[in-house]
Amino acid sequence: MPLELDLPPAKKFKPGSPLFALNKKPGMLLPRTGISSVPIEVQRKHLPIYQARTQLINRLRQLQSTILIGETGSGKTTQIPQYLYEAGIGRQGIVAITQPRRVAAISLAARVSEEKKSELGKLVGYTVRFEDVTSAETKVKFMTDGMLLREALGDRLLQRYSVVILDEAHERTLHTDVLFGVIKNAQERRKDKFPLKVIIMSATMDVDLFSQYFNNAPVLYLEGRQHSIQIFYTKQTQSDYLQAALISVFQIHQEAPSSHDILVFLTGQEEIEAMARTCRDIAKHLPDSCPQMTVVPLYASLPYMQQMKVFHVAAKGCRKVILSTNIAETSITIPGIKFVIDTGMVKAKRYNPDSGLEVLAVQRISKAQAWQRTGRAGREDSGVCYRLYTEEEFEKFNSMTVPEIQRCNLASVILQLLALRVPNVLAFDFISKPSPDSIRAAIEQLDLLGAVEQKDNQVILTALGKKMASFPLEPKFSKAILLSPEFHCTEEVLTIVSLLSVDSVLYNPPNRRDEVHSARRKFISSEGDHMTLLSIYRAFKNVNANKDWCRENFVNSRNMALVTEIRSQLRDICLKLGMTLESSRMDTGNVRRCLAHGLFMNAAELQPDGSYLALDSHQPVAIHPSSVFFNSKPSYVIYNELLHTSKCYMRDLCLVDAEWLHQAAPEYFRRKLRVVKS
DNA sequence: GAGCACTGC
């Protein structure tokens, strides 16, 4: 194996252009969280942001909308809410700080609460799904962006809040993007009565967009505590990024001290596991002069305990090499990374509103993502980033990742906007507009589900649509739940919808395939994946959620626990809506009939040649290998979703009668599907 | 005939 790659030294990278300068003293570096012998008040004063405190408070007092750009480690997220509170700004209400992720909301609340020397849930609290740690005293509230959006459904002016801080706005999550519009609207309508202060916090991106959106709001810059990172580009275009990554890993491995860990960004589970095997193989055959190597894979579907291995410090004389998906870009921060190897690739979903198809494909990252990856090398000390592409290639990357709202199905978002009584969803003030086609496709889908109707050229919610909006679910699943009383199977549908709301309750370790197969056989239903999941859930309840049972049956107990929580939340909503909850017991026909009424748009028909055609788009589709139907050929099926990878796969299938589909949406099937004979 | 980036309500 040739271990050389043309990696010329490139420019030094120092992100951002700070407005509030600060001398850097590396020796004074303090931990962001965790145990420290330094008193907390002292720690607060050593944060880069502290020197700008007075200026900041004065500016924030005057301004109604502010864009705050802060580098990693500036302390903006923990300090700004406290500064506001200490200065008496917004004391008439609550200061809300949104986060894209639950763990961030929870740990930030815990940290700030500790800094304020108060009990979590009193002055400082948090609200995430299933957990509300706040009280009447709470003045500083961390929450997920989705949670604030859900609260807005009940109070679209967000009257409890005096300040809303949208943190990590550059990530442009679906929820943050919708919140932009909701908050701007609330701010406008509240300006004479109870003004709403808005602070948008972001990394060094999208500044102009944010500022323009809030009527040219001023932009304040904060310096952080990022260390300098050297960047290397390849001299030539790499045709095989995996090979290039492998070479880079071992080049570093042979040259750098063994305590310097390496983080490699790859695209998916399979690729990572294959690369891990190759790395371990090569490492075994290196000369004794070379350090040892421990290879750690990291991706979301990995069980929790195995994910935790990235935090284990490697033994002395041993180098840790982490092979990760983009989960290490934002969600998991690994300390001690000296080298980042960036392949420049990512696996991501793209959405085509014409076909309604989501395509999962390996593609180029954006510049913003490249910087994010690079930044992972300089968190505690200076670092090095090897970019496995040329500088010319980098210059051609898109500058920003396309916001989620422009690459997903908008049915839920549009339903929420309608529930927020947005008069004309096509004209909603999105910070980045989705295409009119995808908005129209969403309205059409809601129309088919009976959630909306046209009145005087306006799209408005029906009574059913209003109820649908109260569930934290995709509209098709809310619809199935709301129809379930007609089929006397609400308990079963609640269970199934909850099971479909989590990643997967099935654990499939690749090297124990035969065991998995035989353990699972007893649950398999000839009626499809939904019914199979239902029987697994019933068995799980019968053994009182026993963990050993889960292990023996290759059931992910953590996800199963989550299913239980989701189910009880959905059940509560049903009860609030006054629904009667019945069980169909052994009658699974009714359950499938009910599912057909929610998922009729996702139906496929067996063709004479043994292939399947989607009834909606008439495109060829295939049964996903994870389905219990993989080796059989039912005539008509409904599926949860289509996933385009190597083929267009249907995931999670349920056997249905053609007749049920027609009953569910007679008009739709008459219009769309002449192919199907009644 | 053979496979699943990442969040969140």
Automatic annotation (TrEMBL):
Its main location: other. It holds the Pfam family OB_NTP_bind. GO terms for molecular function: ATP binding; double-stranded RNA binding; hydrolase activity; rDNA binding; RNA helicase activity. It catalyses: ATP + H2O = ADP + phosphate + H(+). The keyword Ligase does not apply. InterPro entries: AAA+_ATPase, DEAD-box_helicase_OB_fold, DEAD/DEAH_box_helicase_dom, DNA/RNA_helicase_DEAH_CS, HA2_WH, Helicase-assoc_dom, Helicase_ATP-bd, Helicase_C-like. Residues 248-421 form the Helicase C-terminal domain. It is an enzyme of class 3 (hydrolase). GO terms for cellular component: canonical inflammasome complex; nucleolus. Its EC number is 3.6.4.13. PROSITE patterns: DEAH_ATP_HELICASE, HELICASE_ATP_BIND_1, HELICASE_CTER. Residues 57-223 form the Helicase ATP-binding domain. Keywords: ATP-binding, Cytoplasm, Helicase, Hydrolase, Inflammasome, Nucleotide-binding, Nucleus. The keyword Hydrolase applies. GO terms for biological process: positive regulation of transcription by RNA polymerase I. It is found in: Inflammasome; Nucleus, Nucleolus. Belongs to the DEAD box helicase family. DEAH subfamily. Implicated in nucleolar organization, ribosome biogenesis, protein synthesis and cytoplasmic dsRNA sensing. Stimulates RNA polymerase I transcription of the 47S precursor rRNA. Associates with ribosomal DNA (rDNA) loci where it is involved in POLR1A recruitment. In the cytoplasm, promotes elongation-competent 80S ribosome assembly at the late stage of mRNA translation initiation. Senses cytosolic dsRNA mediating NLRP3 inflammasome formation in macrophages and type I interferon production in myeloid dendritic cells. Required for NLRP3 activation induced by viral dsRNA and bacterial RNA. This is ATP-dependent RNA helicase DHX33. It comes from Erpetoichthys calabaricus. The lineage of its organism: Eukaryota, Metazoa, Chordata, Craniata, Vertebrata.
